[in-house]
Write a structure and sequence with these properties.
218 residues, eight-stranded mixed beta barrel, single chain, alpha/beta
């Protein structure tokens, strides 16, 4: 609140004495308090404005089949539960204080995320896998898919009664610039991804880096 313009630059001592109890019998100062006093009193006693909340920060997640490439203090780390490189148990052990994401590379395996790409799971398998994970207690199962195929995945899930708010979408879009995919990324994608894997050369290494929404692990 801005200091009222009618308030004098120097506040007399009597005003300070009567700030919190202006109606008491004055020991000094005027019997009839001036108009500026009431404006000044309101200004002085108004509660301080609450500071604006700090913006929630997006989360950086790393993953690689070679776990030695992942930073020791990574905020979040993903690992695989099946396939040729089942890294997830070691991820949890080595990054005990980090956030974790388990990934299944086939629809027959259970995890928090299903990897949909050539050689792994397919789009048509997503609805059934989603239902199974929900029954297991996964609050918001996730799907990893190229941004060029993301619109098709969303359509398939919607046809099977799966609401967009019920799952997390991780897009792969290697632009070299940290971002979360939106309609500006093209390929008919009209949404905003919950996370985007934007490079496979993070930190100058052969390492995948993903930018996740602040509530991705909530």
């Amino acid at each position: 609140m801005k200091r009222p313009s009618l308030v004098p630059k120097k506040i007399p001592a009597w005003a300070w004495k009567r700030l919190k109890a202006p109606a008491r019998k004055p020991q000094a100062g005027p019997r009839k308090l001036p108009r500026w006093f009431w404006a000044w009193r309101k200004w002085r006693l108004s509660p301080a404005p609450k500071p604006a909340p700090a913006p929630a920060h997006e989360i950086t997640m790393f993953d690689d089949v070679n776990l030695d490439l992942i930073p020791a203090k990574a905020e979040a780390v993903a690992g695989y539960v099946n396939g040729r490189w089942p890294t997830f148990p070691e991820v949890v052990r080595r990054w005990a204080d980090s956030k974790h994401l388990s990934i299944a590379v086939t629809a027959s395996a259970d995890a928090e995320c299903l990897d949909i790409e050539r050689g792994d799971a397919e789009v048509f398998q997503a609805p059934e896998w989603f239902v199974r994970q929900r029954k297991r207690g996964v609050a918001r199962p996730a799907f990893y898919i190229s941004v060029s195929e993301a619109a098709g995945l969303e359509a398939e899930l919607a046809r099977n009664g799966v609401k967009r708010s019920a799952y997390r979408l991780i897009t792969a879009h290697y632009t070299g610039v940290a971002h979360r995919c939106t309609s500006e990324c093209g390929f008919g994608f009209k949404d905003k991804a919950d996370a985007t894997q934007w490079t496979d050369k993070a930190l100058g290494r052969s390492l995948d880096e993903t930018l996740c929404a602040p509530d991705f692990f909530a």
